[in-house]
Amino acid sequence: GENVEQHPSTLSVQEGDSAVIKCTYSDSASNYFPWYKQELGKGPQLIIDIRSNVGEKKDQRIAVTLNKTAKHFSLHITETQPEDSAVYFCAASITGNQFYFGTGTSLTVIP
Amino acid sequence: NAGVTQTPKFRVLKTGQSMTLLCAQDMNHEYMYWYRQDPGMGLRLIHYSVGEGTTAKGEVPDGYNVSRLKKQNFLLGLESAAPSQTSVYFCASSPGGALEAFFGQGTRLTVV
């Protein structure tokens, strides 16, 4: 099956700075890459996703980039705010039937 | 719009006891999933279903059984609970075809 690695496991940034989380995947057939945000005591919630026919996607302060050749994708959060503090998960899917998740990044934004 | 609802939210079991976790979705999604979340290990797929009456094994299926008798419900059963099954369990549903998966709020299970 697919293997997704995520780094770093923890990340602290000052409010207003940027945060970058990186993931790699093993199966070149993966074609869908969602990012989820999990707040304390809640289930993960989709924040952005990208498909393999697109190299970059932006949504306000959040962007995701995909490098199919290197098999890695990254989440970029600009102008971070305290409410961005959460655990972020990347995932990869080949068929849409199964999602393989990374191990998560705990982001802390320091006011 | 309730989305994905999990029952119960918390449970403590003794080793060897059995229980069933219920997941219900009101979005008419074909695909449903059960994950477990453990510290430092992310979300690992236990079982999933691609439609009513179907089930399939995920990454960590041992010790669990599932059923999808109705499209809106996906049940996860533990026949003989073990301390290694102490975890937070999440149910999710998706329309399929590489579209967004929606998660429930989770069930925190402790096996003593």
Any overview of this molecule?
The complex is a heterodimer of chains A (111) and B (112). Chain A contains no helices and eleven strands. Chain A starts with a strand and ends with a strand. Chain B has 112 residues and is mainly beta. Helix content of chain B is 0%, strand content 52%. Chain B contains no helices and eleven strands. Chain B starts with a strand and ends with a strand. Chains A and B meet through β4, β5 and β10 of A and β4, β5, β9 and β10 of B.
Principal-axis shape of chain A equals: globular
What is the 3D form of chain B? globular
The main β sheet of chain A shows up as: 6 strands, mixed
The fraction of residues assigned to DSSP E strands of chain A is over 45%
Oligomer: heterodimer
Question: Between the first and last Cα atoms of chain B, what is the distance in angstroms?
Answer: 36 Å
Q: For the report, how would you describe the main beta sheet of chain B?
A: 7 strands, mixed
> Cα distance, first to last residue of chain A?
41 Å
Number of strands of chain B: 11
The share of residues in helices of chain B is under 10%
Order of helices and strands of chain B: EEEEEEEEEEE
